[in-house]
Amino acid sequence: MTFKVGLTGGIASGKSAVTNLFQTLYAIDIIDADLIARELVKPGQAAYKEILGSFGEKALLPTGDLDRRYLRERIFANADQKELLESILHPRIRQQLLNDAEHSRSPYCILSIPLLVESNMLSLVDRVCVVDTAENTQLFRVQQRDNISASSAQAILDNQCSRQFRLAAADDIIDNNQSLNELQEQVEALHFRYLKLASV
């Protein structure tokens, strides 16, 4: 059974930068919940059909793909809609994460799950690592990355669980307010810690 590290953090906290370091420096298998979710909602998939049945044709782009921006706006505006979408996706994501972890060939694997804490997926992992960064940094990155206004970026942050709530669930914290060199040093220290834990 592969030792599983659950990696999480708020939006634009630098989760991808951290997983890239684990993967490129140490060849650790990364299992990404966002990538799994994207596969699950491709046209023809069961989740795609269920989302279309629940949210209607307005949830489609002219290409036939799901309109992720439309869905995001719907779930931010309506808690019931958010719950509905999560009830369709989360059980499928959970199952795929476990399937992929079972086939991992590295000494331990990292499950990158943005909603690890708030979606009650903690039981999937052996250890929780939170990538933490200052809120003003998150706001700036989200605006730049998604080309959205400051108020839209703030709304996204406000819709996530609090930083304190996430940090309270952490076994390990990566401080991503520093330089890339310092980030690499933190990743290196955790890599050796996880190797030790995985060998027990």
UniProtKB/TrEMBL annotation:
<keyword id="KW-0067">ATP-binding</keyword>
<dbReference type="Pfam" id="PF01121">
    <property type="entry name" value="CoaE"/>
</dbReference>
<feature type="binding site">
    <location>
        <begin position="12"/>
        <end position="17"/>
    </location>
    <ligand>
        <name>ATP</name>
    </ligand>
</feature>
<keyword id="KW-0418">Kinase</keyword>
<comment type="similarity">
    <text>Belongs to the CoaE family.</text>
</comment>
<keyword id="KW-0547">Nucleotide-binding</keyword>
<dbReference type="GO" id="GO:0005737">
    <property type="term" value="C:cytoplasm"/>
</dbReference>
<keyword id="KW-0808">Transferase</keyword>
<dbReference type="GO" id="GO:0015937">
    <property type="term" value="P:coenzyme A biosynthetic process"/>
</dbReference>
<dbReference type="GO" id="GO:0004140">
    <property type="term" value="F:dephospho-CoA kinase activity"/>
</dbReference>
<dbReference type="InterPro" id="IPR001977">
    <property type="entry name" value="Depp_CoAkinase"/>
</dbReference>
<comment type="function">
    <text>Catalyzes the phosphorylation of the 3'-hydroxyl group of dephosphocoenzyme A to form coenzyme A.</text>
</comment>
<keyword id="KW-0173">Coenzyme A biosynthesis</keyword>
<comment type="pathway">
    <text>Cofactor biosynthesis; coenzyme A biosynthesis; CoA from (R)-pantothenate: step 5/5.</text>
</comment>
<dbReference type="GO" id="GO:0005524">
    <property type="term" value="F:ATP binding"/>
</dbReference>
<dbReference type="InterPro" id="IPR027417">
    <property type="entry name" value="P-loop_NTPase"/>
</dbReference>
<keyword id="KW-0963">Cytoplasm</keyword>
<protein>
    <recommendedName>
        <fullName>Dephospho-CoA kinase</fullName>
        <ecNumber>2.7.1.24</ecNumber>
    </recommendedName>
</protein>
